[in-house]
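I have been asked to look over a protein record a colleague put together. Alongside the sequence sits a line of tokens, each denoting a local backbone shape. I have pasted the whole thing underneath without changing anything:
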Amino acid sequence: MTRVREFIEQHFFVLVALYVLGKVLMRVQLSPALAWDESEAALQAQYLLLGYGSQPPLYMWMQYAMFRVLGESVLAIALLKGLLILCVYYGAYAAARAIGADRAQAVWSSLALLLVPLFAFEAHRDLSHTVAATAFATLTVMFALRLAFAAQARTLDYAGLGLAIGLSLLSKYNLVPVVIALVVAALGARKTRARLLDRRTALAIGIAVLVVLPHYLWVISHWDLAFQGNFDKLDASGPWTFAALGAGLLEFCEGLAGFVILPALGVLAWLRPGWTAMIALPEGMQQGLAFMHRHLAAITLMLLALVVVTASNSFRDRWLLPLYVLLPLVLVCRCWYAEVSAKRRNGFVATLLIAAALQTAALAAPVIWPEIKGKPGRLNFPVEELARELEDMDFVAGSVLTELHSLGGSLRLRNPALSVIVPRLMPVGASSLAGDGELLVVWEAWQGDGLPASLARAAKGIGYPTGACATVETGRFTIPFRNWAGKPFDAFYARYPAACRMR
């Protein structure tokens, strides 16, 4: 195992790239259907807009560019996410090096992220904006650490910090605490305070403002659209009570514990002697870890203040990923030293390799054997079979209206000639881009054979007043899910001719 550990340390960059590329290729081979966030990307990234609703636009801008380069495909969706995940691994490595970690410490500080299922598993499975936010939050902290602890601060690093901050705030609105916490951490020591008060900080601020300005001007005129959905997710609409506060604090602690427990157990189980030996850390490492302690403490205090003020009891664990992504770095840099035996270090490495293998298997198994979960997942959606049925119906152009996310996104990639509309996922103005031809409305059979009222309103909104059209073809799709012998996909449809559209 020592040879394996040393091989990984020597070839870290190549091996991580191959690992992530393998995950990308596995995703492409698993299924042509799309998960929830993938469907959102497939539908929203058709358009290049200043805003896309309650999420900032950067991910969709990048997906739009990737579609232009690779075409609208599962590969384009999976590769973008893979590149962002790669940025997190490389950014964590560079951040560790910035505070004085040697190569081995930096490598295992980065790879300790394999003990964070929210990153190592969920990010590959079905996250989008959170992955981008995590990547740019990592790069933001990395540039801040390089500025704080380099022998000489470079103007290029100030510019890089400003760009990273701007891109972070275009990835997720909740990354504001990362920036504030960096300021608090920098003010806590003389050297870092001097770097913060350097006049080149104005350059970083200016670049960040220029990057975010177009979108945030859009936000001012679409305030409710941009933020109401995020406020609703906090579930803070009820009265403030101590019971609500207690529930909110418990929810926050559960989310944080879910993030912290596995990395902490993995590090302390194998590298505990590095912690308990009270090793005299190099001065640069002491200062760097103290900076990170202040940074993470400031983030935690801000989140606790949010819970106390709002009494929110809906704290989603994925919100914490961009904020605490470098916590494993702090643990490993504190514990990975020569005083820890090679046997213990090898045990830690073996734990990471097992975690990587298990998470890879967990991504593939439910798609190949959906019986594991007792039901088909979104990647088992029979998009190829549905597309062939539409071709048999001679429906190869026009518009498809549905509330089924996987159907909408998957069908859009399968047949780009179709204009696919999923009302909940469409950005402002997108519905006006519906095609001029026929309209096919699809809904699940459990809703009944009559057109649901929500879809009737949506059809009217894009120019098809369903009640005024007499020549409507109706029918039913019954198609087996991929790799599933149980209940098939069952849905009704209504087909409205182009003549029904109001001009």
About this structure: The beta strands are 398-402, 418-421, 439-444, 473-479, 489-496. The longest strand covers residues 489-496.
